[in-house]
């Protein structure tokens, strides 16, 4: 039954505002309710419009989209587990390789729990101090680099986790490079301060040298290794201690007297470094005015969002210390969706760059950045950049032009889902039953915008794969198709020569995981091996042939004689096989000559040395003989095949192998090791250059010796 509103327009306005404000705003926003319906004089309408804007601005300012990225085993998943526990999303903590066998919340795959590594990036959300934080936990292995790539593409900020013992490692550099590519502001978190040999100041200096970070610590530890028991906040000049069974009680105290001098010195260093990139703070610093806590905090926020500064936090996620101040730092220093400028390309105006407002009032623009095959069909992760998406709405895939309905809209918490009715700009959600590819853009149909997609690295390793039993062919191809769709770095191809199925990916672990998933999820046992290298054969000197093929067995026989020679082609000739007819007169009728050429071509498809094709060969037919009755196309074709085999061994055949042009770029300190390894693989170095701190080597290496090279290069150069 419809609600009857009071007559007086002023009362009607108040009544409507009280009566479920948010649903009314939604209605006005989506255009389902006509704003004139509220017309209580233009002043009231304007006030309503302002309130509506404020309402959206406030909700967007209290939103953070962050990713957690780092080198292998720096503690990303453990940190996410603690964040979820302290924000009340989970009620007990489980370790990554815990004795209870449950495994961390974000590692939802059985394989992830067994191996203790993250394979797929997982999304979740939590609330901390009235702010909503969307978190994506990403893998650390370089093999799963696409997961990090697509997470950073859609996030507004990131936490770069560094190990206080290992320091800045190879994958930290890769992840940092990806953050720069997508212009993501970041804070650093030096983890594992409870471990033997922990040295946060060494790590901070490595970040400045290797990552070229303009960074400074915003906290200092109280004790290290086994004595690590708290932190000093350099912005508010307070000490934090973490009590309770899981460190959930944060106790704020005055700074211990033995650390006061160090804290003041480090705070001065922090102010100096920030004032180099922030003009407002620089003015206060140079005029020797007292810098308040809030002024310093605002300056750090401005510099971090402008990607000129990286604040460094400290703690130990495993020992439950330092996680809550890090969460406060995320709210204080990382941007909300409105503060990050995102661009789209307008397809109707020749890919002109358009800046997106990021407000829910605009037309819908959303990017599908990740696909997963779930129990209920394809699950598509969307980052909404502008506008509102509602369950049951029709949305348009700009890349294909298809119009699709949103049957189900969910928010993800690792592998659990929570159904929602609608989502607005700045949020990360998932939809079911929408068929699309990774990197597609969706709009409400009023605009034709596409978001620039992420950069996909080329595969570095290939394996030949085949199903063990013949019956599982259907599931085998189904699995390969699904994995290709989910992961742009996983490629499947067919080698036309060896007719092997070749899978390519980012490394051995990457391909092993997919073979294992195929066995578990599709019950297909597959064997993998080194792909067959396509060798070639050729001849080195001229050889004559004279072959008579004669067969008489009642009825029409077979008769054909071919005479001529085979010789190698000159090295600069464009063709790989040449056949020349130099017959004089009608020794062989001209209608049989094509059959002779066909015979020679067929014979050249497999040489007698190792059965690979023969190249750079010229066959010349000079003479022959035919029979008036018994000669046929088949007879001459067979005569040509046998003639080729007869002269092939006399022409001194050799095997040729494919040699690849290999370009390597690696840190200069490993030059000796890498060069020695190339020589060991029978490689020949043809060029050597210097690019900054990196050394660039160009060489020719036989393909047969290159199998698994990416893995050994990674281990040689860390």
From TrEMBL:
The keyword Protein biosynthesis applies. PROSITE patterns: G_TR_1 (PS00301), G_TR_2 (PS51722). InterPro entries: EFG_II (IPR041095), EFG_III (IPR009022), EFG_III/V (IPR035647), EFG_IV (IPR047872), EFG_V-like (IPR000640), EFTu-like_2 (IPR004161), G_TR_CS (IPR031157), P-loop_NTPase (IPR027417). It comes from the Eukaryota. SUPFAM superfamilies: EF-G C-terminal domain-like, P-loop containing nucleoside triphosphate hydrolases, Ribosomal protein S5 domain 2-like, Translation proteins. It is found in: Mitochondrion. Keywords: Elongation factor, GTP-binding, Mitochondrion, Nucleotide-binding, Protein biosynthesis. Belongs to the TRAFAC class translation factor GTPase superfamily. Classic translation factor GTPase family. EF-G/EF-2 subfamily. This is Tr-type G domain-containing protein.
């Amino acid at each position: 039954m419809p609600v009857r509103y009071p007559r007086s327009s002023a009362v009607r306005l108040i009544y409507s505002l009280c009566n479920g404000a948010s649903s009314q705003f939604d209605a006005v926003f989506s255009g389902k309710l006509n704003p004139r319906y509220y017309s209580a004089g233009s002043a009231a309408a304007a006030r309503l419009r302002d309130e509506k804007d404020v309402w959206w601005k406030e909700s967007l300012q209290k939103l953070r989209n962050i990713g957690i990225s780092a080198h292998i085993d720096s503690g990303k998943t453990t940190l996410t587990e603690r964040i979820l526990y302290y924000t009340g999303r989970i009620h007990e903590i489980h370790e990554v390789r815990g004795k209870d066998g449950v495994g961390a919340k974000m590692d939802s795959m059985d394989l992830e729990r067994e191996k203790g590594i993250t394979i797929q990036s997982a999304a979740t959300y939590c609330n901390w101090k009235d702010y909503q934080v969307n978190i994506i936990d990403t893998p650390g292995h370089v093999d799963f680099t696409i997961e990090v790539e697509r997470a950073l593409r859609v996030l507004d900020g990131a936490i770069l986790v560094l190990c206080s013992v290992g320091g800045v490692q190879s994958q930290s550099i890769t992840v940092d490079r990806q953050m720069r590519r997508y212009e993501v502001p970041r804070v650093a978190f030096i983890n594992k301060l409870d471990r033997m040999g922990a040295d946060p100041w060494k790590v901070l200096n490595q970040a400045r040298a290797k990552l070229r970070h303009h960074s400074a610590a915003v906290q200092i530890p109280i004790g290290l290794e086994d004595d690590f028991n708290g932190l000093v906040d350099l912005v508010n000049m307070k000490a934090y201690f973490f009590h309770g069974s899981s460190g959930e009680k944060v106790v704020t105290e005055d700074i211990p007297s033995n650390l006061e001098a160090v804290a003041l010195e480090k705070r001065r260093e922090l102010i100096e470094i920030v004032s180099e990139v922030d003009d407002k703070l620089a003015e206060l610093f140079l005029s020797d005015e007292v810098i308040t806590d809030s002024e310093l905090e605002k300056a750090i926020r401005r510099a971090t969002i402008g990607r000129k500064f990286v604040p460094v936090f400290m703690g130990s996620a495993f020992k439950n210390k330092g996680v809550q101040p890090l969460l406060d730092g995320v709210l204080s220093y990382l941007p909300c969706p409105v503060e990050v400028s995102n661009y789209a390309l307008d397809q109707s105006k020749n890919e002109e760059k358009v800046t997106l407002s990021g407000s829910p009032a605009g037309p819908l623009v959303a990017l599908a950045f990740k696909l997963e095959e779930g129990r209920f069909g394809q699950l598509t992760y969307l980052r909404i950049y502008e506008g509102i998406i509602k369950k049951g709405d029709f949305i348009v895939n700009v890349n294909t032009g298809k119009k699709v309905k949103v049957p189900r809209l969910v928010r993800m918490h690792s592998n659990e889902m929570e159904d929602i009715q609608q989502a607005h700009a700045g949020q990360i959600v998932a939809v079911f039953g929408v068929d699309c590819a990774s990197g597609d853009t969706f709009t409400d149909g009023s605009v034709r915008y596409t978001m620039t997609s992420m950069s996909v690295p080329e595969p570095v390793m290939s394996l030949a794969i085949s199903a063990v039993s013949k019956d599982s062919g259907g599931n085998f191809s189904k699995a390969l198709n699904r994995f290709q769709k989910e992961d742009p770095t996983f490629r499947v191809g067919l080698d036309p020569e060896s007719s092997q199925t070749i899978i390519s990916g980012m490394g051995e672990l990457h391909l092993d995981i997919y073979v294992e998933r195929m066995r578990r999820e599709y019950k297909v046992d597959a064997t993998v091996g080194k792909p067959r290298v396509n060798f070639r054969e050729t001849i080195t000197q001229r050889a004559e042939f004279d072959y008579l093929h004669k067969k008489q067995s009642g009825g029409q026989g077979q008769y054909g004689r071919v005479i001529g020679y085979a010789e190698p082609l000159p090295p600069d000739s464009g063709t790989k096989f040449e056949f020349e007819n130099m017959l004089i007169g009608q020794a062989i009728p001209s209608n049989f000559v094509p059959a002779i050429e066909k015979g020679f071509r067929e014979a050249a498809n497999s040489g007698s040395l190792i059965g690979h094709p023969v190249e750079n060969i010229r066959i010349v037919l000079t003479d022959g003989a035919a029979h008036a009755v018994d000669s046929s196309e088949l007879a001459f074709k067979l005569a040509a095949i046998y003639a080729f085999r007869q002269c092939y061994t006399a022409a001194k055949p050799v095997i040729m192998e494919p040699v690849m042009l290999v370009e390597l770029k690696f840190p200069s300190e490993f030059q000796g090791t890498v060069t020695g390894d190339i020589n060991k693989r029978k490689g020949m170095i043809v060029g050597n250059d210097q690019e900054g701190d990196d050394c660039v080597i160009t060489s020719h290496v036989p393909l047969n010796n290159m199998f698994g090279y990416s893995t050994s290069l990674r281990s040689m150069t860390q």
